[in-house]
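PT: before anyone asks, these are the final sequences, not the draft ones from last week. 364 residues across everything. Please model them as a single complex and drop the result in this thread when it's through.
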Amino acid sequence: MSAAGDDGAVRLTVNGDEHVVTSGTTVAGLVTGLGLEPRGVAVAIDGEVVTRRTWPDRPLRGGEHVEVLSIAQGG
Amino acid sequence: MAEPLRPDGHDIDDIDDNDGADVTDVADLGEDPLVIAGEAFRSRLILGTGGAPNLDELERALVASGTELTTVALRRVDPSAPGSLFDLLRRTGIRPLPNTAGCFTARDAVRTARMGREALETDWVKLEVVADERTLLPDPVELLDATEQLVDDGFVVLAYTNDDPVLARRLEDAGVAAVMPLGAPIGSGMGIRNPYNLAIIREAAEVPVVLDAGIGTASDAALAMELGCDAVLLATAVTRARHPVTMAAAMRHAVEAGRLARRAGRIPRRLYAEASTSFEGLADLDAGG
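LR: through. Structure below.
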């Protein structure tokens, strides 16, 4: 998929919804931008788990499907 | 192939599960901890977080249950959700056990387990791979496949399984830390439908056996423990009870009572009466009449 568009915006999907971030935004930046505390949160991109310690070094790319999960009541 | 189950064919009530010490108070059960993968728990009740009306009620129920381990699911974040389950767990000190609820294939379950490991920084997982939404019964083929993959990946797998002694044995061979057979379908409240299979699972297993699913009320939990289960995992029976906190306390007592009864050694079942009072020395009140 393409990188940032001409306007520097990266368009991707977060939990099934379209989402736009600025070019260079990392996974860590996305999680913070969603107003989340990183603890209790897990992220997958295109079905693959992104290890927490790599969040600050992993930029988001256009067209990626990002899943941001947290613990919820269950089972 | 799995090895054959123990073919003793002995009286199912003829069990001595006591190390000889008298246990007269539930506090003494602390000397008899539940040990899973080398970690000890004083409480033999694992309470799930699913189904509670709100986090406040859930927190009070968890505390009343005395549980030290509680299952949680992984779902898309909802920044608008009130309160934080994570904060609740931190506040109460109850250890979270991430599950793979909602997974129908080994592939999904393995990925969800990895998400749980990232979210909670634990290798422990309650592995659930169900066949369909109507029964929520475990899919044995997918379950065994997921177990093998997760054990290879270093997970401590607590596997939710059918009340099938052979499958339990295969899961143990694959390296699970605990087998968790159902008593009845999840949320059904139907209790323990096949106590004899559970007894066979308990006989054969060298890992802890945790009765998981089907519990409706306190007597079901006590029965599970009397049958020799090492612990009981339940959620709906508490969280959807009319008064969850009170039911949580009932379950705590039931699990403790069942454990004590198991260790005490029940009397054998008999078809006919056996007098506990001697007939010797009975008065002859008809004499001289």
